């Protein structure tokens, strides 16, 4: 990996806390992050998942500072598959960082983890995430109706995949 991605460290907790407070970012975290200890717990969870070989999360760096996250999770060694996800802080959006990060984490998953198929999905009302996926080499595979539930509202998602042979 180059200097675009690195594993999260406990020193990044203030950045995670700030990111979690941005609009709609609460959907990106598995638990509520409203304090530095909660941010540290989130980072510790990422570390334990890496140790368990179930998920690999990386800080996306811009000028050496974490501005986003990219991950391969749901690592399935039987079928050699994984699930890619990403988010960027507001100030980092629109700079191509998410696309570059998705490309790099895909190469990591294929070459270092030996995975064959990577999947991701985004809400249909998120065209920016769709551009990231397609620009990172993920082909559209279809729509999953009413896949996600946020605040009592169901949302359709579009699924994408990238193969090691693509």
Automatic annotation (TrEMBL):
<dbReference type="GO" id="GO:0016740">
    <property type="term" value="F:transferase activity"/>
</dbReference>
<dbReference type="InterPro" id="IPR000182">
    <property type="entry name" value="GNAT_dom"/>
</dbReference>
<dbReference type="Pfam" id="PF13302">
    <property type="entry name" value="Acetyltransf_3"/>
</dbReference>
<feature type="domain" description="N-acetyltransferase">
    <location>
        <begin position="3"/>
        <end position="156"/>
    </location>
</feature>
<protein>
    <submittedName>
        <fullName>GNAT family protein</fullName>
        <ecNumber>2.-.-.-</ecNumber>
    </submittedName>
</protein>
<dbReference type="InterPro" id="IPR016181">
    <property type="entry name" value="Acyl_CoA_acyltransferase"/>
</dbReference>
<dbReference type="InterPro" id="IPR051908">
    <property type="entry name" value="Ribosomal_N-acetyltransferase"/>
</dbReference>
<keyword id="KW-0808">Transferase</keyword>
